[in-house]
Design brief:
This protein is α+β, with helices and mostly antiparallel strands. Helix content is about 40%, strand content about 20%. The chain binds one RNA strand of 88 nucleotides through α3 and α4.
RNA sequence: GGAGAGGUGGCAGAGUGGUCGAAUGCGCUCGCUUGGAAAGCGUGUGUAGGGCAACCUACCGAGGGUUCGAAUCCCUCCCUCUCCGCCA
């Protein structure tokens, strides 16, 4: 959510943001609503003021006296007006808040113009894509793949997109997660094991509700949602809190399974490990002082990149253009790993600065030098999502004999140098 | 899951219908005092919204209700603690 004052005082800034993100919102309607709300607010507050004055007067009068009874009669009318006014006010506030929720975050000045994914900037590339086998297979075509990654059994037991990982398949997932968590720990992120079901208030604070309600699995009886990413419980850790400024920046990471209904996905995007309803991911999250947030974003992106480098997986970094930036982000980089068999880039991390957009919704603040609470900036990114990293690893490292060479950094975790499908 | 107790400012803790945004203590701030410190004395010390401002309004777990008026009474929900039950 944006600062209502920003809209009121600098509507042109918001207008420019909408244009850069290629979104269309009727700003004038929101401004008009804000204006009528403020008029009504002052009216109701005036009436409440009258009640308070009468209250102190009546406290001094004898209970049954004629003056007292007259005052009661007089204030009954005011009371009715207050009740009515408050109802109108509440309705206005709900509408205003809802309207404010339709306004996207302001893109940072360094975000390139553009409307479509094709206009994203290739910010950096690492590794030699051409050096990989031109005859590599898509991972689901590797002989024996089904033995380690059993989609059929998963479909029977749960449904499509919920595979079993078996033997070396399970082991490589565990090795990757362990490696990610250890590396992130070395980079200064404190490991957290969070709840993977969250309540509606948490899902609202990070923006899953109300906009993405259909994307989450629900535990209806209890009103809980299965987390689509560890970002949700992690960010909400400090919800409605004021963090000591001296503690900033706070670095945290968490592994959780992630659950996404992915309604509307189809085709090559959902083959094999490319897109699952349940998958494992380590998330990186920072709460930072506003002055440092873009440096911190670059550092976080670097931390995620270093994981791919250590695994020896070629990747590129995209700087998202305005039109592909997303609603809540001020700036976003995507990390995409090269998958030699599919001959395409797979997104494995999305590193974003939300500035105060999430912090305002979640009311996460720190106490500034002048003693006043101020909103923090939140930054997050994957570090990393397992299935697509795994897909690239299987495809890129497949040997002529049908085994997969395990990157040396992973061998201590995996326990051997080759993964076999036998 | 059952029974009971409770949720008030940074913390502890008073307050059972009006003069209560809330006593008192602790903590913290600034000042006095001191060679310096402690003690002592005094001062200040929540958050949010509206208003150019003076200032006004709201908030005592959350949401409803009763009333001229609610921290205080009623209802629903959430959470914590104690005991019992169940259990990885």
């Amino acid at each position: 959510m944006l600062d209502p004052k920003l809209l009121r005082e600098s509507p042109d800034v918001v207008r420019a943001a909408l244009a850069k993100k290629h979104l269309n919102v009727d700003l004038d309607a929101i401004l008009a609503l804000d204006e009528t709300w403020r008029v009504k607010l002052q009216q109701v507050e005036g009436l409440r003021g009258q009640q308070k004055v009468a209250n102190t007067e009546m406290a001094k009068l004898p209970k049954g006296s004629p003056e007292f009874i007259a005052k009661v009669q007089e204030m009954k009318a005011v009371s009715a007006q207050v009740k009515e006014g408050e109802a109108v006010l509440k309705e206005m506030e709900d509408r205003l808040k809802q309207a404010m929720m339709t306004l996207p975050n302001i893109p940072h000045a360094s975000v390139p113009e553009g409307r479509t994914p094709e206009e994203n900037i290739v910010f950096a590339t690492w590794g030699d894509v051409g050096a990989l086998s031109p005859n590599a297979k898509a991972h689901w075509e590797i002989p024996g793949f089904d033995k380690l990654f059993d989609f059929a059994r998963g479909s029977k037991v749960t449904g499509a997109g919920f595979p079993f990982y078996i033997g070396d398949g399970a082991r490589i997932v565990r090795a990757l997660l362990h490696f990610f968590l250890d590396e992130n720990g070395k980079a200064g992120y404190v490991e957290v094991n969070p709840p993977i079901l969250v309540n509606a208030a948490s899902a609202t604070a990070t923006g899953q509700l109300p906009d993405k309600e259909g994307q989450m699995y629900e535990a209806v009886a209890d009103g809980f949602y299965a987390v689509p990413t560890a970002e949700v419980p992690l960010t909400n850790f400090f919800r409605d809190e004021i963090i000591d400024e001296a503690l900033l920046p706070v670095y945290r990471c968490a592994y959780t399974p992630c659950f996404r209904r992915e309604a509307g996905s189809y085709g090559k995007d959902v083959r094999g490990l490319n897109r699952l309803h349940q998958f494992d991911k380590v998330e990186l999250l920072k709460w930072v002082h506003p002055a440092t947030s873009y440096d911190e974003l670059d550092k976080l992106r670097g931390d995620a990149e270093s994981l791919l480098r250590k695994l020896g997986l070629p990747y590129r970094v995209l700087l998202m253009c305005g039109g592909d930036l997303g609603f809540a982000q001020s700036k976003k980089y995507d990390l995409e790993v090269w998958s030699a068999g599919q001959k395409r880039w797979l997104e494995v991390s999305s590193c974003s600065n939300f500035e105060t957009f999430q912090a305002r919704r979640a009311q996460i603040r720190f106490r500034g030098k002048d003693g006043k609470p101020e909103l923090v900036h939140t930054i997050n990114g994957s570090g990393l999502a397992v299935p697509r990293v795994l897909a690239a690893l299987l495809e890129n490292n497949l040997q002529a004999d049908g085994r997969v060479k395990i990157p040396s950094v992973l061998v201590p975790y995996f326990g051997k140098e080759y993964l076999t499908f036998a």
